[in-house]
Amino acid sequence: MNKIVYSFWTAPLQKRWAKHKKDHDLEDILQSSINCLYLSVLYAKKWGFEVEIVTDLESVNYFQDLPVDHLSTDLTFLDYNRTWTKGKIFAIAKQTRPFIHMDWDVILKKKEVVHQIRQCTSDVIVQSIDTLVFEDHLAKSNDITFEDVKNIKWLVDFKPHAVEEIIRTYDAVCNTGIVGFNDMKLKDSYVSNYLKCLEVSDTTTWVDSSRVIDQYSLYCSVKANNSSVEQILPDKDTIQERANAIGYTHFAHISKYTRTIQDKIINKINEEFPQYGYLVNSKRPIKNLIKLSLCTVVMNRFDHLVATLENNVKVARQFRGQVDVNVLDYNSTDGLEDYLFDQDWFVQGIKDGLLYYYKNTTAKYYHRTLPKNAIHNLAKGEYLINVDADNYVGPSFLTYCITVAENEKNFFLRPTLPSAKGSLGRIMVHHNDFKKLGGYNLKISNYGYEDTEFSLRLRKLGIRKIDTPPHLCQDTIDHGDHERIANEKPRTKIRFEDALEDSDYENKMMDFELYPNTNQSADIDLYKIDHTKKRNKVYDTSTHTLDRAI
Predict the structure, then answer these.
(1) Which residue among 134, 257, 487, 547 is least enclosed by CB atoms within 10 Å?
(2) What is the pTM of this model?
(3) Parallel, antiparallel, or unpaired: how do β-strands 172-181 and 99-102 relate?
């Protein structure tokens, strides 16, 4: 076995700690975990192993400077419910030749353990085979009890699919802090059994089955296939002595997050691998982060905006200043402003500079492009993202946008038909490109075609379209077509019975112009409202700099 695979899935780290250890700083937890992986990978490369890291878009940038052979983001779109070992299984599932998977807090410090791994000819190698603890009060934090296994078996028995290997009851589990396979069919059996049990873990709230189905299902597969097993630490009575002798370290659950252990990890990296010391030292250069601005226009869509905006602000806050939210209330008369300023999350968002709220008080009818251009021009982000009032924005979508922006140039993002129903207007464009084109076509005042027309002009300008994965944009509020045009100016000329079809048709019949706004007035009466409800007159909606209090 000459290949080591790591899986680093950010979502479980953030969500498990946020739920169970609220007194800990999540940023410190994430960085401490990453430091462990740094040291583990650097030792693995020192011993000449081929190394693969399977991670997600949220954390991939941390690992790009490591001397790894393969780095992928295959864990980005995994759904995290409670099963935190799922990322490991997906990383294991993709392997096609003998390998070992190591937890990122496992360190191979000496040649003795390296030699044992490389010379292993057994079907599978694991950290150890651990006996189940039959008395719950005797169990330590990482022990699996007989009661744990019994609960999982009971739940699995009531599922529609059978997991034959788990029918029998065994009194042991495989500790998979390190787990490797020479027998790839056994690996497939292990993955298959895990996935069959996955529904249990993801839908059960009264038992944390994540580690149980991982370690017990492997032991069951080993027994069912009469497979040979090699253990790194075979004798539990001398486990610490053996680990020290061969140079095998697996940090205990909480110890790796203590200042003492983190200082040792950082010192070891600086001593053993000084060329990578900048990864963990406080003087590590800070990356110039790309800034995104979410831009939303609303007119009398109270029910939609109060639902989506709170979510979108909460998600934007997770990105620590890299994403802001901009809302233009186009003279809504449904009580939206009063309601929002009664919400703590809304007022705090404005106070923190996370949320910007603009208000027009003169519009009689909704204009499809005029307020949209205003809010895009006022936004401060390097990239602008149009977000309709009925659209929920998720962290995976924003992470994808940031990652594309970091790796691509001269592009815009837009979802594709037909899977992006309700979010086709979610266009991300560079601020300079938006300015260069003059924004959306001001000649389009009623429903239809303004997003596609804008996309066509971007492409004519030489800006490349990248399709946003549709599943990142599907969380929208479903509603009837009448709400799309309820606030628009009534039309006098009707060709079709369907008002939306008629309006869309008329807009499509316009002559194409690359710069249709050259002689169009973009004036709009607008106020910027701060967290104290003080109104500031905006004197120029083509820039975000000109406003003053009235």
Answers:
(1) 134
(2) 0.60
(3) antiparallel
